[in-house]
Amino acid sequence: MTLRQVARATVALATLIAVLPAGAQTQMRSDSIARDFFAPRFVLSNSEQIGLAEEQRAAIETEATRAAEAFVGLRFDLDTALRQLIGLANQHPVEEEATVAKLGEILDLEREIKVLQLSMVIRTKNVLTLAQHDQLRQIRRNERVRGPRR
Known about the structure:
Shape: elongated
Radius of gyration: 20 Å
Mean pLDDT: 83
Distance between the termini: 43 Å
Number of strands: 0
Strand content: under 5%
Number of helices: 7
Order of helices and strands: HHHHHHH
Helix content: over 70%
């Protein structure tokens, strides 16, 4: 691909992405949901502070590993589909049906990734006690005020 073709494909892809639903309401809902969940890495990095038991640690590590393995495959498929979409958008004339179908494939992959991520943090949360969950929320609040530990 020439630089001009890459630029045109990038503009076409950006235009497609711009019409996807996004905005303040989506972000607000996402932030409200995220407030109740913690990434496995955050939980494990604060394991001593919250008194994480070895069984809890093992369960969280197992889930994080399983999710990471699944994520790699999905991410590869998504990258491939995005390259194909750029190729379709770069054609003249653009094959509308094929391009729309490819966007549908991309959205399906993104949905799978989001479901995988949500399932991972749900399983992580379910391993924690209520007290540990509250401690992690406090740690997060403190980090927002002071900045993360080094």
